[in-house]
Amino acid sequence: MCVDNIAERSSNINDYFTFSLYCNVCRSLFEKHKLLFAVLLAARILQSKGAINMVLCLLYITCQ
Length: 64
What we know:
There is one protein chain. By secondary structure, this protein is mostly helical. It has one domain (about 5-60). It has 3 helices and no strands. The longest helix is centred in the first third of the chain and has 21 residues, at about 5-25. The radius of gyration is 15 Å and the shape is flat.
């Protein structure tokens, strides 16, 4: 697969790195902690895109 567009290639590399990070971290987590890690990872991705308010997200996660 050859990608001529640098932005698309960068996006593909970022997507693969995120997936690889998730897989490698989940190998060392207990099953009950994998979902929490997935939610936190997704929240950070959305925060970096400006699509979520992290204060509200952490409020919902911790239920405080």
